Please model this.
Amino acid sequence: MSDEYELNQPKTRPFWLHLLLAGLSLYFFLSAINVMGAGLKVIGNETSWLAEAIAQGDNPLVALMASVLVTSVVQSSSFTTSLIITLVAAGELSAGTAVFAVMGANIGTSITSLIVSLGTMRIKRQFRRAYATALMHAIPNVLTVLLLFPLEWATSTTSADGFRGGILTRTAHWITRALDLGAGEKFYNPIKAITKPVVTGIEDAAGWISGENATTAGVIVAATGLVILFFALIGLVKNLKDALLHRLEGLFTVLIFRNDFLAWLSGIGSTVAVQSSSVTTSLMVPIAGAGAVKLRRVFPFMLGCNIGTTVTGVIAATANPTAGAVIVAISHVLFNFTDNAIWYPFRIVPIRLAKWYSSLAARRRKYAFIFLATVFLIVPSVALVISELIFFSD
Model:
């Protein structure tokens, strides 16, 4: 019986192989960012259609809602944030507008854990706990955007040096200047040199395919970078998850959730390790749903995950380090630290909201789907349509 059991067990890759594959995925992730940037610069220089399309995103509401939709579809704020920073680095999106898009990515990323929680619907009590766990990621993100979005928009002004942004963006701009990075300036980074062979190779191949048509070559390069970025993130998350996260599961109840501070640090550390808050928060859903972790300890872990996910944006900014990209990455960090600073002292608000709505959803399951559809589809779509109608009427 034991021999048959062992034969039926899936073969797992050795730990070192997962780390090697994770390293390769990280290399192609960084390369993809520079590949996309190179393609977007060519397109921006050769045509005006991309600039016109991006110009519609100068409306903060459009930037926010479009980012919610994109992140909900790809289920990765890392992907969306990296794309936003790449657009800023390529000069196709202003830092002041990009900050609103990053806010939308913070909302969109919470859809993954909510979807995972739906898998526990058959057992009412387990679903209530699992859904409450997922909501503890979603609700603070939504509430923080509701607070900071109008504040950032209302405080948007143009400084003496021509930089435009709200309080978050201007703070990030000040930090960037303190690091001796003037607007539009670049600082040396070896990542650019390391990834140059990939960028050059794809540019040469695109030039050959397009018959030296610059615009077509730019589209091919940007599209190729986008595809590489998507698959590199999948490889990075999968291999880091297999190498590290499963080794952490046994420590959850013994060490990680001994107190709120350790839970918070664990949320940061595990998310940095796998470069995806979607993975770490989704892993927490079935564990908390089974009752292995108290819900009051889940909340600081989720806050820590929000801090950890900003590392991807920082990596993206260092891969193609223009001042605008650095400003957006720092704004993302500031946004999530503000999120933590607000909601940990007032944690009773999101925790009670999560418990109340999860109890409602456990009694009438349609409310679980109503929340998903409203936050991640209906509201963003309606807001985009209204914004576009106003834009075209002007």
Observations:
- The radius of gyration is 22 Å.
